[in-house]
Design brief:
alpha+beta, 6 strands
């Protein structure tokens, strides 16, 4: 099966990249917060994630298998994979069997491991000169378990990058549902792209097969640009 476009992979890279970029930046970059924003649970959740990723994944005593296992655990702890899967597949999720749903979520996770585990374990020098700050935390007025965290990524060149994180809170714990980067919702973009591929490839099974082939070919490794070309 031949892809008509590699765009399907770009939203995936942007969405997970935003989450894991924070982890890499917070290892070495200066961090700041407006007022007491990080005292609130949602802000603290993002600010503490980077240190945990560095400490736990870059532990030199870990074997490669243990490092991957810990990455998968952290990935599922931070990102609400089932909720994102339901949203991005939309009507296709509702029509999918339990087996198809599980297979899609599994390959989604495999893409993240292949793309970002090597990036987390690399030296963080490339992120020097950048800083990540929490500038606002607000709770959704119509949905008490939804929290929006606005952050800013300061670069040496160019204007700051504004990101709004949509989090779900349950029993005092937070997970990422979506990230809006400069006005672009990653979850909505993923939904549009995956819906198009599902239609072209003959259903959810076709999408899963295609993504598995890309993972097997190493298409998401950092040195390939993660675009599945």
């Amino acid at each position: 099966m031949r892809l008509h476009s590699s765009k399907i992979y770009d939203p995936f890279v942007c969405f997970l990249g935003a989450v894991l970029l924070v982890a890499a930046i917070l290892v070495t970059a200066a961090t700041s917060a407006a007022s007491a924003a990080t005292d609130e649970g949602a802000g603290a959740f993002l600010m503490s994630f980077g240190k945990r990723a560095a400490d736990e994944i870059n532990n030199e005593s870990l074997s490669e298998a243990d490092r991957e296992r810990r990455f998968r655990e952290l990935f599922n702890e931070v990102i609400d994979v089932p909720a994102i899967g339901r949203f991005v597949l939309g009507i296709h999720w509702r029509g999918a069997t339990a087996k198809q749903r599980a297979e899609f979520l599994a390959v989604f996770e495999d893409m993240a491991v292949q793309r970002f585990l090597p990036m987390i374990t690399r030296q963080s020098a490339e992120y020097a000169g950048k800083s990540f700050s929490i500038v606002d935390v607000r709770r959704d007025q119509t949905n008490e378990d939804r929290v929006y965290v606005t952050s800013s990524l300061i670069r040496e060149e160019g204007p700051p990058i504004r990101m709004i994180w949509r989090l779900r809170e349950h029993d005092g714990r937070f997970k990422v549902l979506d990230i809006n980067i400069e006005g672009l919702s990653m979850a909505l973009t993923l939904r549009r792209e995956y819906s198009s591929v599902v239609k072209r490839s003959g259903g959810v099974d076709g999408l899963v097969k295609l993504l598995r082939e890309k993972v097997a070919a190493g298409a998401f490794k950092p040195d390939t640009g993660g675009a599945g070309r």
